[in-house]
Structure formats: C-alpha cells, structure tokens
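**Protein of interest**
===
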Amino acid sequence: MKKISNIFAVVAIIAMMFVSCSKDSNPSSSNSNSTDIPPNQMNATIDGTSQTFTCYGFKFVVFGDSSIIVVGADISGKGVGVSLTGYRSAGTYQVGVTDTTGGAIRFVLATYTFIASAGDTVEYAPPTDIPGKSYGQLIITTLTDSVIKGTFNATLPKKKGIAGGATVAISGGFNTSLQ
C-alpha cells in the first residue's frame, strides 16, 4: 500500500512541476460546478479561500487497475490533486482507501500541497493505511477517453510539513483533457 501511495505522490509532484508554469488567480471565477469550468482549469476553495489553477489529467494503468490523476497547480507552488484507482465510470467515490480485499487496492486520494518556506513542503492527504474511512467525496460527472470533469470535497489531515493547521478543508471542481 505504501509503495502505491509513493508512486502516486511521485507522479503528482512531477505533474505539478509540469503544470506550475502558469498562474491564473482570479478568485471570482472559482466555482465547484464542473459544467461551468473552462477546459484545463481547476477551481478550488481551500479553507475558505478561492483559487484557480491550471489543470491536467493523466490516465494510466497501475498493477492492472485503471487510474486517473487530475492535478491543478500554480507558479507559487500550491497544488490540488485528486487520484482515482480502480475506476469504472463516472460516479461518486469516497476519498480514502475503499477496498483492500483479495489483493485489490481501491482508493481515491485528494491532496493539497504548498511550499511554506525553503525546505518545508506541506502536504495534506488521507492516510492510505485506514481502509473504509471516508475523508470526503470525488464526483466524476463526465469521463470519456479524452476528458474528465468533476467535483470534490474533503477534510484532509496533515501528512507532512511544519506550516499550516492540523487539517485543511478543500472543495472545488475541474474540467480537463486526459493525457
């Protein structure tokens, strides 16, 4: 389980570095209705503060399960990511580890990361060792071979870092093409 979590963390960090070359911080455009969000954009409210991120989606296979990662990031180092493994279709998914039976691992992760200062990257994410506990929801409203749209909401515990509180509340929506 820890190996899979590490794989997703590495992919998410690489994706955030890839997309963090542009910034659009128009808080008035933040909206969690995925049908109103322009392509390749993620709108998020993080502890009450609205932000707009450039967004990218990645689809791949891990240990025989279809997986998707959607990452929104900006040039300041802030980023929100949602990942889903074992997906089948559009629908509502609980954030957290949902199933570990029969060797299959099904989970939905939501993360919020920011760089507080040199050397202090702060990450909020659900633990991957507590099956069955829900930290929020990921709702996929559209899922095709080339596009994913959806909304999310979660209250996430701090995973690492010094700055920030013990938890963070995030919600928002995204509309992006799948690479």
Summary: Residues 113 and 123 are 4 Å apart (CA to CA). The radius of gyration is 15 Å. Helices lie at 2-19.
